[in-house]
Design goal:
Length: 119
């Protein structure tokens, strides 16, 4: 298998530009991940997920216009092949449960070291 066949195409959605830039830098340091787009809000994240059909949408739970839960629900309702991975500052069980119930494949808190997440 070629390296490109193993590449994961990803969209990052978070309303903090500096955080998006840092996450992008860490993720793109891996030869297995390609960030295809970034979104600053939920509606933009949903539009970009539909446009690019990435393998993964890394989405913040709390964002302007549409939260991550609404984005995950919309993609699940559309039977999108994009896997939603929640990325949040909140580690509250209610947030985790709501995201997973909405169709998210996983939940990562922002206090996790990203190199551990990428490996």
């Amino acid at each position: 298998m070629t390296a490109s066949a193993l590449s994961i195409r990803l969209v990052i959605a978070d309303d903090h530009p500096a955080l998006r830039a840092g996450v992008r830098a860490v993720l793109e340091a891996s030869d297995r991940i390609t960030v295809v787009a970034e979104a600053g809000g939920g509606a933009e994240a949903l539009r970009l997920a539909r446009l690019h059909t990435p393998d993964v949408l890394l989405v913040d739970v709390e964002m302007p216009d549409l939260d991550g839960i609404a984005v995950a629900e919309a993609l699940a309702a559309e039977r999108s092949t994009t896997r939603v991975l929640a990325f949040s500052a909140y580690d509250d069980r209610a947030y985790v449960a709501r995201m997973l119930d909405a169709g998210a494949a996983g939940y990562i808190t922002k206090d996790q070291p990203l190199p551990l997440v990428v490996e």
